[in-house]
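A quick word before the example. In earlier lectures we treated sequence and structure as two separate objects. From today on, think of them as two lines of the same record. Here is HTH merR-type domain-containing protein written that way.
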Amino acid sequence: MKVSNLAKALNTTADTVRYYTKIGLLHPQKSQLNGYMFYNAQQQQRLSFILTARHLGFSVKDITNIFHETDNNHTGCKLVRDIIKQRLVEVEQQFLDAQALMNLMKQAIGEWDHLPDKTPTSQSICHLMDTFSAMQSQIPPTKSLTETLSSTKANLAETEHNGEMHENK
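And the structure line, produced from the sequence above:
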């Protein structure tokens, strides 16, 4: 089947099919008559696996590693289990960090609701941040929140860099 047919069959975009072909995760056959790429049932199965794995939080590198195993007639299941367990740990930590951030935001709102608005000065852009910063300096910083934000930014950068925004119709 052609790119557009494969994309339609798996409810994704032709750009997504082309992307995974370009990076070598899909291996279509090229027609000698017209130069079109044709994808057989095995390639449809690979794309289905890719889309499911991406939906579950697997990175392109993870999928490449899994295909390296399976393309060499080794099971990929152990690697899939290991990756999903690691992703679950990461997501649980991100959830806890998001809850901590939410509580911090609620605390800020609670404090700021009772304070007046003030014009900026040479020492302060917005006194609300200054009062909150002063209070927060008495509490040790949450390293995992910083790490989580960095990790999330890195994941978003990888997704944008890899052109995977095409996966969603």
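Notice the following. The mean pLDDT is 85. We will return to this example when we discuss secondary structure assignment.
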